[in-house]
Amino acid sequence: MIRDVEVLVIGGGPAGLCAAKAAADSGAHVLLLERDDTPGGQLVKQTHKFFGSERQFAGTRGFQIGEMLVDEINAHENIELMTDATVLGMYEDGIVTVLKDEKHLKLRPVKTIIATGAAEKFLTFPNNDLPGIYGAGAVQTLMNVGGVKPADKVVMVGAGNIGLIVSYQMLQAGVEVECVVEALPNIGGFLVHASKLRRAGVPILTRWTVKEAYGNGKLEGVILCQLDDKWQQIPGTEKDVPCDTLCLAVGLTPLAELAWQAGARCEYIRELSGHVPICDENLMTTVEGLYCAGDVSGIEEASSAMVEGRLAGYAVAVALGYDVENAQKEVDAAKAELVELRSGPMGGKIRAGIAKVEQKRGEA
Amino acid sequence: MRIEKHPILQFDRGEKVTFLFNGQEMEGYTHETIAAALHAAGVRELGHSQNLDRPRGLFCAIGNCSSCFMTVDGEPNVRVCVTKLKQGMVVEEQHGKGVVKG
Amino acid sequence: MLINDGIPTAEDLAKVLPSEERLNKGPIAITECFQEIACNPCVAACPHHAISMEPDINATPKVDPDKCIGCRVCVAKCPGLAIFVVDMTQSEGTAAVTFPFEYIPVPEKGQLACGLNRAGEEMGWFPVLRAVSGGKKNLTYMITLEVPKELAMEVRNIKAGGYRDGK
After folding, report:
1. What is the ipTM of this complex?
2. Nearest CA of chain A to the CA of C23: how many Å?
3. Which helix (H) or strand (E) holds A224?
4. For chain B: N or C, fewer Cβ within 10 A?
5. Nearest to C4 among A52, A190, A206 (CB)
6. CA closest to A145 among chain B residues
7. CB of A15 within 8 A of CB of A115?
8. Predicted TM-score of the model (pTM)
9. All CATH 3.50.50.60 domain ranges in chain A, comma separated
């Protein structure tokens, strides 16, 4: 049996929650799918206060924003939330298949918003598969969702926002953070995150990397070394650091597989951290009625993901003819918010990525 | 080790349950994943690589990466990082590809 | 350099430190926020409208030394934990430094805590004048430490735990 759905939102993270709410607030009926047993995506483990402005809930901690959004979704009569539901495929005839409680569901959505987020990248070095070498997000999950102390002593790789924030959160959980190493010459994350780590005594070593890891069946230590201007390891700079955990925060890559499957045009855009669907200014892919919001179409802060979700949700409402005047106003407001969030010096990368998307769109 | 006090978070762990890990009885909580309960008990070796049988631990902890495959209640290739603990669960290390029984 | 080790330099600080004259008048907020990022909760947090950001949300905040009364409200509101309040009038030889704190245990008033500078180096043991919660939802504490005047622009944190009783 095929179930008809008006608006299908795939992924219950910051983008998906905001997309579902925006479309439903306008009057559309939304089915929101989340593969985990609780919605919220990675917001559930963000214990720090968010940046941005009031409209992106700045000053409120990430997990509190998640709780707030989920409460709104649960209370919304136009939204059906389905957890433990994994989308398996998107077919050329528009059918979406879902695994839910060991059952295979078939959906036929009028409009679909993909908000599947991103996955953590990995780093190549000898013995990088030893137990104890984790993605920074995994450590965050263990610690902030599971309530388990993830390590006794950790080395963090990556001084972007995730590396800095997770290092700080580990200090809060009583973990000894030996140092943060960063291959780039500069700290990539917000300097205020770096400074709060630094004044807790954690050194941030730029132009350093992991040469190798060692341990018998589990991580026992790492050899760090310095890099020269050409990214080559400098012999003689090796430093042996005993530790039980190495955390990798070396970037995220968009989870755009579903857009690929659906036949949306995807291109590799370095500034957006991977293969991303080419979307128009309303976040619609090259497939009519298929939208993307959040990290799936380019890695950015969660604040931007929420605004993108809102943009896609209201754009879908406009396309379906729901509360058009107001929804269009909200679309325009969300676009203006994104311009503002991306307009500072830290937005340079995302602006370059978006420029490339626009250029590719023009080539088609 | 579990975090008992945290400056920002409080943890609702659910009910205490017992489960078997490689035949050994262990304790955990219903709101925890199998991986979290094992980690709290000091077990970090979860999966094994298919060809070289190298020990693997968590990598993503959100069901993306397949690094934590174990056999749970006889079912192979279970992602223990996203599977919640239940009373009496039988959790076993898995080597090789895993075989679906029956 | 701040950009590659996280420690603001004297040059960075010179941009945000109030005049000596203003410091000698009483408590004032110092925003150690040097990077243009999209963030503005401090502006709305200030009950005295002393913090501004021009032309937009990406600018760094500016504190109006005439309007700021050093009330400390912004300290727990800044998502970057980058605002401090310094009161050079605490006593003849000491200053009161207020900073955000998100670790456990939280020190109690009257205890001695080990003060840390911006590099996390130990600066000595100083009495805790106040330890105030930012609220049930905010969850950031504001700790005020009494330090010798010459360390007022150095001490910006304390070591969590190991607090001592007495003087």
Report:
1. 0.97
2. 23
3. strand A221-226
4. C
5. A206
6. B11
7. yes
8. 0.97
9. 2-119+252-363, 122-248
Query: CATH number of the domain at A122-248, please?
Result: 3.50.50.60
Q: Cβ contact (<8 Å) for A148 and B56? A: no
Touching B (3+ Cβ pairs <8 A), the chains are: A, C
For residue B84, how many other CB atoms are within 10 A of its CB? 17
pLDDT in tens, chain A (364 residues): 999 999 999 999 999 999 999 999 999 999 999 999 999 999 999 999 999 999 999 999 999 999 999 999 999 999 999 999 999 999 989 999 999 988 999 999 999 999 999 999 999 999 999 999 999 999 999 999 999 999 999 999 999 999 999 999 999 999 999 999 999 999 999 999 999 999 999 999 999 999 999 999 999 999 999 999 999 999 999 999 999 999 999 999 999 999 999 999 999 999 999 999 999 999 999 999 999 999 999 999 999 999 999 999 999 999 999 999 999 999 999 999 999 999 999 999 999 999 999 999 988 6
A95 half-sphere exposure, CB direction, 13 A CA radius: 8
A351 touches chain C (CB under 8 A): no
Close Cβ partners of B54 (under 8 Å, ≥ 6 residues apart): A129, B48
Element (H, E) at A172: helix A161-172
- CB-CB contact of B80 with B56 (8 Å): no
Q: Which residue of chain B has the CA closest to C133?
A: B7
Q: Do A346 and C45 touch (CB under 8 A)?
A: no
CATH of domain B16-92: 3.10.20.440
